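Researcher: I'd like a structural prediction for the single chain below. Treat it as a standalone chain; there are no partners to consider.
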Amino acid sequence: MAVLAASSLRLPAPATALRPLPAEATEQWYGVYSQGRKVGYQHRVRTPSADGFTVQSDTLTRLTMLDTSQLVSTHLIAETDRTLRPRKFDFHLRAGGVDFAVSGAAHADVLEITSTSLGERALRLPMSTPITLSQTLQDLLGQERIETGKTFRYTMFDPVSSAPAAVSLTIGALEEVSLPAGVRSAHRVDEEFQGTHFRLWVEPNGTVIKEEGPLGLTMLHEADARAATAGIDRDASVDLVSAAAIRVTRAIDSPRTLRRLRLRVSDAPALCDLSFPPRQRLENGALVIEREEAVGSVPLPVREPGLADDLRATPFMQVDDPKVRALAAEILGAESDAAAAAKKLVDWVFRNLAKEATVSVPSALQVLESRKGDCNEHAVLYAALARAMGLPARMVAGAVYMPADDGSAGAFYYHAWNQVWLGRWVAVDPTFGQFPADATHVALVEGSRQGHRADRDARSNPIRGGELRMILRA
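Model: Treating it as a single chain, here is the predicted structure.
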């Protein structure tokens, strides 16, 4: 999940503009709430060392994905200097049977990121720009002078997906905030991160006392450990998929075979942001999606220079790993036609991956070993297998229509699928076993809108990359 911002690049500011951090230890406890019911907690400690700080953060939250409840925990421990530049850090996420880990260590002017969960590939980040762990966002604000009307801009960097993203914090007026321990005064702060909007309430010293996310999640500052961990409703959880559902006014007949769909969209971002021609385009104020019928083909391997980014390995797509290449060769054999190869891969992934909701940061190698997952796992493995055989492939994040069993009109839910290059980009869906994908697949983010950086795909999930970033901020 992309969304787990494990660190951030902070643009340099004049030293005179910042306030020194207190030299004593700070500890913060938060309760995590959904629809008024407590579903978890977060604990954060910053302890001064001889020449820096040790930062530790732990979260425990019960989440539901596609009717599957999972207890999700994270643990972060990091060592930084006095300016919050990391010397090293270790991050772990556990959800059900998934154990995801990523570490970082500074060497001279480089921060090296490694992860056994992502294979042997290491990521080296230049430290010419100060780098600060995301969990120290509160400390960053503590260095700033919090005044109404100010806007602070940072560039967040997620070393798991190796994808930077801008974040802006606009300081509003002081408001009275009701907390479990009483009423406190704090500035309302509007935050934008990866196109997702959050609202924070921040005291003048930088302490975040409340945070609201777009899917109904709220974090509230608690007095101590006893208050934060007490009252967790074991029968409650955060159903992120249902909360993100887009309801429709009437049912769509035969959605899995639909060739053309015309949608009227309201309460959405600018419609121009939803235009991905030729498959998805605007016509007279409506959004029109058409399934590709004549898919065409090209010989394999594809060697066009302009498609190089859609063939290369990334931290999530271990295209060069011997296991990935061996499986791709086993599936395709001597197949040299791109369209035939794309369909064979769709069929194989569809048949061989168990359909199981997963709260994790999916990588091709992990999926190859577990042989299970939701749409994200299907899509990332498909892309890696395709690229391993010279077939350009991307991941797409968006929404797909699902009919309802209760007689209602149904809804669009978050979904991930792929595009493959067959002389043009064609949508395919290995989760549904579709070649090509039906017309109810509405793209919100696709590879071409991400600068062809497929290593950003895993954080393009608006659920994982948005709401989870709030409660698993580590």
